[in-house]
Amino acid sequence: ITNTAFTVTEGVAADLKTAVFNLVDVEASRNEGTGGNLGKVQLTLSNAHGVINVGSSGFAVVVGNGSGSVTITGSLTDVSAALAVAFNYTAGNNPNATELIHVVLSDLGNSGTGTTTALTTSQDITLTVIRANDAPVASDSATLAPVNEDAGQAGPFPAGPNYPGATLNPAPTG
Length: 174
What we know:
Elements: E1 5-9, E2 14-15, H1 26-29, E3 41-46, E4 50-54, E5 61-63, E6 69-74, H2 76-85, E7 87-91, E8 98-106, E9 120-130
């Protein structure tokens, strides 16, 4: 991943296509492997506090779009193209000041050596989150005592020129 640091705003979709993924797997590029995974790789993007969306392209299969964990499976070309079409992240409510998108690329066991043990590589994208100034929210409920709006104010009136009928008490001179 060429660009691994971004600044995003809470609740606003940020375009991360400029992350520029350079996905490489020798066996997948030679269309090696067996069965349904022949020539395929799997890229997983995950974050605990936000929403990730990617595009679709070619025969890439995208699972989990609009969640915190998105998986793209397909050829290197199709997976790369899906990220070039769209790669967006929206920080959730009250996120951490710094968030990470964990990126894992798997060869799905297509090692070219006859083994089916998947090999993976991973890297993180760091997101500096600008938090929104959320409006306060009242919770619970309170019962207020009834107020007779025609009763006027109880107790002494405050002194001052902005209160009609109030008496000014000048400071003693002397």
